[in-house]
Amino acid sequence: MTTASPGLPPVSPTVAAAALDLLPARLRKRVDGAMGKVSGWPVETTPDGARIVVDEDTSVTLKVTAGIVARADDAVCSCLLAPACLHRAAVLSSAPLAQEQADPAEEVDEPARTEAPPPPKGVPGAAATARAAESAAGPPAHPAIQDSACEGPTLPGKGATSARHRTGSTTGPRPCDENSEDAASPVLTHPQLTALASLRTAATAVLVSGVSGAGAVQRAELLHAAHSGRLAGLHLPAAAAVRIARRLDEARSDAPSFRLPELSAELAGLLGLIQGPADAVTPARRAYQPAGPLRLYGLFTEPIVTASGYAGAIAYGLAPDGTLLTISDVAPGDPQRAIQAAQAPVPGGCALSLREWGNGGSVILTGPTVSADGRVGGGSRVRSVRAAGATWHQPPLDALWQGPPADQLARALDWLEHPADIRPAGGDLLFLTGTVTQEGLRITGGPQIQLIAPDERSELAYADNIRLLLSRTGLELRLIARVVPDRPGSIQALAASWTGHDGERFRADLGLRRLNRSHIPAPKPPDGRGVVGRPAPGEDRSDTSVGRPGGSPEPEGHQGRVTIAESDPLPASEQPLGPPLTTGPASGTTPKPPPPPASAPGLEEPPVGSTPCVPPVGRPGSLSSAPPALPIELDLLRRTVDRAVAGGRGVTAASADGELPRRLESVGLATGALCARALLGAAAERRHDALGRLLPADPDGFATAWLAAATYVSAAVRSLLPAAWSTDAHPTAADPPGPGGR
């Protein structure tokens, strides 16, 4: 693996892809090796960009326009072979990809949308595929699995294209009305069909090669296909292809933000859009429509850092009708800019920063523009004034925490069905109340779960703050969190509120404000004696925060400046002892242990690129307080899908687990067994001609089988996970389990 130079400016995807086109075949083979040397080349800052020194006689100069290298002429090498030289291609391929963003202040003259976009077909977790989870072979092992299909399951193959267009899914039963979508399917032009074919070829090549085998050539082909798709009006699949290229860059540079399940989801989404062209044709830019006066109650502020070199902050607010809207400030920059952007002003001249508005503030906007996905524009006609805010325990914000956790989770999983570019703001947020325990967080009306950090970068305070909160056993929290579909027992904590030492409500944006021990009451002793909040022996309660006399905590709703306190690391005796013990579903029987390495090679370790969680302080959880878990067999199938993305077709064939289909059938996941057999068979299939010569492998067949398995896993998780969060599956102390146990 190589590490990208931190000083390289973002490069337009088109420029990065075109850099390899100029190279002859002999130099294209050497690009990956040259990219490994770029991190050792000095980067000098110039008034209009950057200069990369290759050696005493050779340098590459990058000219930056609006924060990015936007044209091919802006990258110049001093060697004699330029521009068809290896130095220029290696530098442009190593630089982060620029994210093309529309100016929020601009408005596009389009008819306003009067209804939400329809659920996409072919994207993992789509409604059409949810019914694929599951027809049981005999009595089902999990009551949440039921068959609501009209017919038995069908598995896509080489002749499944027409069926895919009829059903809008890649696997699972056919719907009752097969003609319901034919009339709504648009007629694509020849350039659009050609662009879709290029996108499918490029995505399939990445899938067959895997992350470990995808180099600069596969990345350039993917960016070329994305450019062709954008020119043909296929903006959603083009944007998905660029995101996949960024994920590959993160994997190549060992970036801590890389997560293999996210790359798998992006690949499945792209292949699904290609097979469902009705969802691929979208407007070129986000439309901002004029709206009437808005009063927005601030919820919280989230720092944003992207792999493409952008950073900033997004503040969430609630309108009186219950709609979540966002105001953001995102621009090229490093993680430090994400902290600074929280001080950006709210549009309209109300002299209120995003952080102050999100920390219990309220604004009234006149003349605003709002996009279909809930973004508030900052045009010159917008005016804003301050208004009386509300805490999380006051209306209208308090209503967000009144919904059952299982219903909130189901809504968030439904939100994930939509393509990333058209999802409404805040659809993946969970508003939860719970109590910190030694095993994690006990959700009121829900299960025991673990809190993990959305971003592990040291510049952001997520990991330290979550560790500190989880060390306060008995602390009652109100949380704003984000669902993590591939981790059924975990959520990403974004903001929290609790009762401080003086009885006042205390609220913190966990990514922006660095907490210390003086902000949180001390845990209660096990015997119940002692005073909550009394300093422990040797505990330092000094507060280095600014803006508060005496170092006292800033109460919830305070409209002052941002307070950033020094982090107080945990003593060695309170360091986590390891991840909590996870078990199978609550079915009244002893959970099955994971399979031994001999029967499931490669499954004994977490998937490559998974973000390490922040485990709670204390001993691992017991079986009675285990977080919600999906069937182990379903998790094995999910990891097989992710492993195919990590290692490609060769690794999938070499590590094939022949027992996996049988294990899926034994717990009632019959369709999952079909998908597993198809995937493993497509990976290992090698045909011979009449003379016994080995024929080339069929990449399209492997991609189709992989997409079927990925779609099935997503649909099964969407069906089973809300049931695992329900109160019936997790009785409270007032409603203890029966004699049979859980």
Automatic annotation (TrEMBL):
PROSITE patterns recorded: ZF_SWIM (PS50966)
Sequence segments annotated as region (Disordered): 97-184, 517-626
Highest taxon of source: Bacteria
Positions of the SWIM-type domain: 62-96
Transmembrane intervals: none
Keyword Cell membrane: no
Stretches with biased composition (Low complexity): 123-139
Keywords per UniProt: Metal-binding, Zinc, Zinc-finger
Name the UniProt record assigns to this protein: SWIM-type domain-containing protein
